[in-house]
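new request in #modeling-help
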Amino acid sequence: MSIIEVSNISKRFGEVKAVDNLSFEVHPGEIFGLLGPNGAGKTTSIRMILDIFEPDSGQIEILGGPMNEEKKNQIGYLPEERGLYQEIPLERCLTFLATLKGMDEHDASKKLKDYLERFDLFQYRNAKVKELSKGMQQKAQLITTLVHDPEIVIIDEPFTALDPVNTEMVKDMLEQKRDEGKAIIMSTHQMNQVEELCDRILLIDHGHRVLYGTLQEIQQGFASRDIMVTPLSNLPDRIEGVREILKMNGRFRLVLDETSQPNRILRNLINSGVELMEFEIAVPPLNEIFIKVVKERDEA
Amino acid sequence: MTKVWHIIKNEYTKHVFQKRFLLSLLSLPGLVVLMVGVGLLVALLSIDSSPVGYIDHSGVLSDPIPLEEESSIFEPTIEFRPFNDEQQARQALEQEEIQAYYILPEDYPQTLDVDLVFTEAPGSEVQEQFDQFVKQNLDSYQALDPQIKERLEEGSVITISSLDGSREMRQDQWYTIFTPFVAGIMFFVVVMTSGGYLLQAVVEEKENRTMEILVTSVTPSQLMTGKIIGNIGVGLTQLVIWILFGWIGLFVAGLFIPEVQNISISGEYLGVLFLVLLPSFVMVAAIMAAIGATMTETKEAQQISSLFSLPMMIPYYMASVIIENPNSPLAVGLSYFPITAPITILMRMAFTVIPAWQIAINIAILVVFATLAIWFAGRAFRLGMLRYGKKLSIKEVLRKQV
C-alpha cells in the first residue's frame, strides 16, 4: 500500500506550467529519489504534497486520504531553503518547532536532547542559531525534520553543507528510518547519494514524468552490451567476441559483438590465462542516464 | 488550539525577553522622568530666596507678627525686611541685598493698593508670602468670619454641568484635558511598536525561510491568530507596565502636590476606552501582518507601515477643531473612520457626551474592520508567504484564488 499517492497533478504559475499531469506513488519503508534538473518542478510537487499549494487539477492522497491538520504532524520536511529563527537559542528554537508538530514540551525536550547529542550539537544548545556554522544549522534543521518521528520524511538536498563524517551519519539515519518503515522522499542532485540510498526514483523534467521505477530497473534499461574488467595480468590484444577494448583508469571496457554473451567472454578470458580481479556488466551511472535523458528531451 | 498557544508563547517571549523591549519599555517613563527632572531643575534655579524689603506708611506692619511658613526647596521662606524710607530700600536693592521692595501707602487699609519695586520681577512665591504676611497683620481681615476667610483664601472653582446632569467639568479637573492626549499617545506608541514587531516577525520569517517549516506544521490562520494575540500581549504588557509607572509617579507626586491626589478617571471612560482600543489594536496588528506577508524586505515594509501611522495621528492635527466642537460633522466623521476612530473617540469623550448609539456604531465598525483585516491578512499570508523577492499586490490578494 502506498503512503503517498499522487494522481495526475498539474500546476501552472502564470504562463509557466510547473507540473504537468504528474503521477507517482511512495511506499512505506523506502527511500524515494525525486530527481530532475533545476526548474523541473520538484519543489512545486513537494509543496503540493505538503498542501502549501493546491494543484490546479489532479489529486494527492497522504496516509490514505486528503491532507489535514492531524497529518501535518506525521510529516517531517527539510526545505531546500533552510530556515530557523536566528535570534533565539538553538534549543528553544527546536523545541518551539517540535511543539508545532504536536509534541508536548516535555517530550520534545527529552527527544531533542538525544538528537542534539547524536548530532554533536548538545554543547551549542544555548547558543543563538545565527552563531552556528552552516553545517551545524543544517544538522539542527535535520533534527527539526526528524524529532517528532514522522511517518513521511521529505528532504530537499540533505547533504549540501555536510562534511563526509556527517554525511555518513545522516545516511545511516535515513537508512535506519527506512528500516523502521518510514517513507522518505529525497530530492537531490547528488547522483552518487541516490545510487547509494534510493530504492526507487522519479525523474521529472519540465513538469513531466521522464523516468520512474526501481533504480535497478532504470539502470538496466540503459545498460549497454559492455563489460567492465580489471585484470591482474595483461589482457590479450584480441578477445573472441569482443569488438573493441577501451582502457579506462586501470580498468578495461569491453565492447561486445552483436552476438556474444557475457559468460562466453568470461570463459574466453579465463581460457586465455588472464587473472581477473573484477568482471561486471557495465551499468551506466545514474549521472550519465540523467544527463542523457535531459539532453535528449531538450533537443527534442 | 495548543499549537496556537505555542505560537502565542513563542511570539511573546521572543520579544519580551529581549534587550530592545526593555529599552523601549523604559524609554517613555525615562523620558517623562527626564522632562520632569529638567523642569524641576529649571524651577529650582529660578527661585530667588533673598530677602524682600518693605516700607510701611500705613502702620499695618509696624509691629508685625512674623510669617511662620515651613521652608521647602521649592518654597523657601522669604525674609521680609523693614526699611524706614524709600532711599534706604533703593540702596539695598541696588547693592542686591534685597530682590525687591514693597511700599504700603498711608491709605493702604482702604485702597489695598501696594507698589512693588524691583530690578528683576520676583517669583510668585514672593507675592504669595507677602500677601500672607500682610493678611495676618491686617486687623480688618482678621476680623472676618472664618468661613468667609476660608472661601476667600481658596478662591473660586467653576463647575459646568450638562443639562441632563450626566456630565460635569470642574475647573480644577485640568487632567481631564490631558487624559485623552496621554491615553492616545500611549495607545499609538503601543500599537505601533507591537505592530512593528509583528511586521518584522513576518518579514523575517519569510527572509530566513522559517515560513516553510511553519506552514507545513500549522494552518495560516492558526499562525496568524497566534502571532496577532502574541503581539497584542507584548503591547498590553508594555501598556500595563507604563500605567503602573504612571500610577507610581502620580502617587509620588501626590505626596508633594496635594491636587494630584484628587485625580480620578471614571470607570465608564475606561470601559469605553477598552472596547474601542481593543478592536483597533487587532485591526492595526492584522494590517501590519498583511503588509509583512506581502512585502519582501523589512525596510520596505516599515516604510509602508508608516503610511498607516500618519493617518492615525490626524485627530491630533485637528485637535483644536475637535475640542472646540466635539459634535461637529468632522469630529463625528473622524470617529467613524476606523483608522482615525480610536484617538478621535478618546478626545471627544473628554469634551462631550457621545450618545450611546454612536459609541455602539463606532465599536461595531471597528470590530467589523478588525475582522476584515484579519481575513485580508490571512489571504495575504497564504498567497505571499512563499514569495521571495516578488511583492504581492493588493489586487492579487483580493482576487486570486487561495
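bot summary: The first strand of chain A starts at residue 4 and ends at 13.
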